[in-house]
Amino acid sequence: MTVVEAAIQSGDFAEHALDEWLLLDLHQRICGDLVPDWAGKWRDIEVTVGRLKPALPFQLPVLMRDYGLDLQARLPAAVSGAEESLMEFLAFAEGRFLTIHPFRDFNGRTIRLLLTELLRRLDLPLVTLAPESETERATYFLALEAADQCDWQPLMAVWNARLTTSEQD
């Protein structure tokens, strides 16, 4: 994962569209050596994540294409400088991906890489994406549950805290 993070910071993905192909590429890069049979491919099995029952496998190609198109459509508002639009974009990017849960495994790592690329594109500082304390984890998981219902506000608050903490460092 460190190699891919370095490639992101070097701008290796700068010309890549924010689309499903970028996500497939990131997933392949982080787990291709470990699970070559399904790395870089949408999951072909049904899964349950906590209380969430993500989309069925046959739905994933369309959902992920639409997810990429949504990211592309929302990016100009995030770049506009309006803080609420930026927080909503980042919350949507993270929450929607995790609700869809497109891969058998490594979904968390994949979204963290995408978020790192988004932060780079938005000229924002790197932030700690994985919650570190029990309190942060509880807040984060509640925010993800809200995002499963398309309520971005709790995850927007998580993003606000991430960026505020980053500014203080």
By secondary-structure content and strand pairing, the structural class works out as mainly alpha
**Bulk shape:** globular
- Provide the CATH architecture: Orthogonal Bundle
End-to-end CA span: 24 Å
Strand content: under 5%
Number of β-strand runs = 0
**Helix coverage percent:** 55-70%
**What is the radius of gyration computed over CA atoms, rounded to a whole number of angstroms?**
15 Å
* Uncertain residue segments: none
The fold-level CATH name is Fic-like fold
Report the order of strands and helices.
HHHHHHH
Quickly count the helices: 7
Under the CATH scheme, which class? Mainly Alpha
Major β-sheet profile:
none
CATH superfamily: Fido-like domain
The whole-number mean of residue pLDDT values reads 95
Domain unit count: 1
